[in-house]
Amino acid sequence: MSYNQKNKNISKKQNTKPGSVNHAFKPSIPSKVNNKNTIYLAIAVLILTFISYVPCLSFDFTNLDDQYYIINNPDIKGFSFKNLKLIFTNYYVGHYQPIAMLTYALDFKLMGLNPFIYHFTSFLFHLVNTLLVFIFFKKLSSNNYVATIVAVLFGIHTLHIESVAWVSERKDVSYAFFYILALITYLDYKKKKSIKLYLITIFIFILSCMSKAMAVSFSVTIIAIDYLLDKRINLKSLKDKIPFLVISLIFGILAIYSQRSEGAGLFIKNVSGVYTPFDRFLMANYSFFFYIEKLIYPFNLSVLHPYPYKINNTLPAIYKLAPVLNVILIGLVIWSLKLGKKVMFGFMFFFFNIAQMLQIISIGSVIASERYTYISALGLFFIVGEGVREVIENPKYKKYKVMVVALSLATVFSLSFLSYKHIFVWKNSENLWTEMIKTYPKNELPFFNRAVYYFDKKQTDLAFKDFCTAIENNPNYVEAISARADIYLQRHDNNSALKDLSKLIQIKQNDYNSYLRRGNVYREMGQNKLAKDDFMVIVKNVPGNYSGYMNLAIQNCIEGNTNEAINNFNKAQELSPNSPEIYSNRANMYAMLKDYDKAIHDYNKALQINPNISNSYLNRGLLKLEFKKFDEALIDFKKVIDIEPNNAAAYIKISMIYKEKGDKNEALNYAMKAKALGIVIEDSYLTNLR
Description:
Blueprint: H1 3-13, H2 28-53, H3 66-71, H4 81-89, H5 98-111, H6 115-141, H7 144-156, H8 161-165, H9 170-192, H10 195-209, H11 218-228, H12 235-238, H13 242-261, H14 264-274, H15 277-296, E1 305-306, H16 317-335, H17 342-354, E2 366-368, H18 373-393, H19 401-422, H20 429-439, H21 444-456, H22 460-473, H23 478-490, H24 494-507, H25 512-524, H26 528-541, H27 546-559, H28 562-575, H29 580-592, H30 596-609, H31 614-626, H32 630-643, H33 648-661, H34 664-676, H35 683-689
Antiparallel strand pairs: 1-2
């Protein structure tokens, strides 16, 4: 008979008459002290969580989806009916997450695109979630030790950094907020049998699903809670789970459609061509083992954990070992039933919340992601908490109490320090991808994404080096080859650019954009026949592509085929009547043919559609200069400078106009600016202006 059982038996026999002393129950004063201790412990957990994660408030955005969710997303930049409708009806980066998107809209309303507010909101969510975890496990276990250990591990664990420090993962911290809150109200409903609490739980659960589809696991997690609370699991006990299961099914189907909208179907097809069903079984086992291993040993972390390379058409040995390790683990969990239900409950909680992300059916481009442990890890943390509680409270383990407490404190503070150190990986895109390179140096993705970061920062040499490494790791990496071709073109290395563009066409023969780019390179190199051949391929295979006709028209002009050029320009205009580049290029042709009225008309039309085409202002100004319309030409050339402050050609033309108008001071001023920008000006011209 256990100590608690003995205590219960004694309490039944004790005298409960007024004035008698009942030692089976604690007096009210210690209860208040216990409440104070609970509050102090919760505050301590929050303080440690704050210290571990607070550096994220100074971090920048990253180029991992932040541009799609926030920076370039017009839907979050207002609370109009139109914006709200879009938020609740659109998928974003393959996810349906209107609640998370609303939080972005609120952040934008408060501070625009200042990264601080987005990090602050995610950080605040995490702190509140940590408090909710404490409350939930306090209610579930009625024990401060368990609540504290689970909450502190949740709050400071290094694997949770991704969910908090990555702004695009707002859906994680927001769905967790509603998920844990719903667990709390569910416990209260089971205790009080209140229909009101039941309906509140359903409503909060729906909000969780509207933040992230991973919330669908709630419907089976509450079955595990019933199991722990000694509730019988039968058809009758499952009746109140039916609404949750139906809601889970609806949002699960919605998640599948949203993934397909982002091209997941094509990815799954490609994966199926590489990995057999047995391979996917091994990878699912590896993923399951991976999450447990990383929760225990949070090192060699990465923003992405890509699919493994097959060597000699087989997966690495660890993938074959994973099922064996998992069988041993499950065997130990089943054996633990001799000691009670708590280990089984913790395992069920973990499994139910991680199972949907084990890539049994491929739904993403990675085999595992650290953020998927944000909720699921609570199950394993509960097992740890109950283990520590058992050692501390059970007299049988008294001699181990000091050692376990010391080890627990050492683990918590070490984990806090590790998280504080690791969180700086998310400071910017460079840190993020550099860290992944350390873990996966032979993978192309981190090199490509770091190259994109360097390219955006105008660090072209560093970008070029990373693009080259990405191509070395994957010779058919289309995006990297295309980006490197752009750098070659910037460097006027047309021969190297041609090699890359031809490689792209070789990899994907229907890549008509590469034909277009290669045709323009051929044109620049004076290889007009090859240029025309590329444009003809586009016109022949994509008759609705206006760029093919427009560039073919330009090629016709170069070859002197004026009638063909006009026909092709007109065809391009029919296909895309609001493309300013068509009018601008056709205007250039009319100017060359000295048909000035039509040229002016097309320049006007181009600028009407897009008033920021500097080249059209420049060319229209040159035409007006031909007709001595100095004031009108001056307006056009100054507009060029407004758009392109370093356009030397505009400065020298303005100087010439002021000279013609007799304003030598202004003429000299603009001439000197043109000279500073590289225009060669005769000394006699400048002397005449002084």
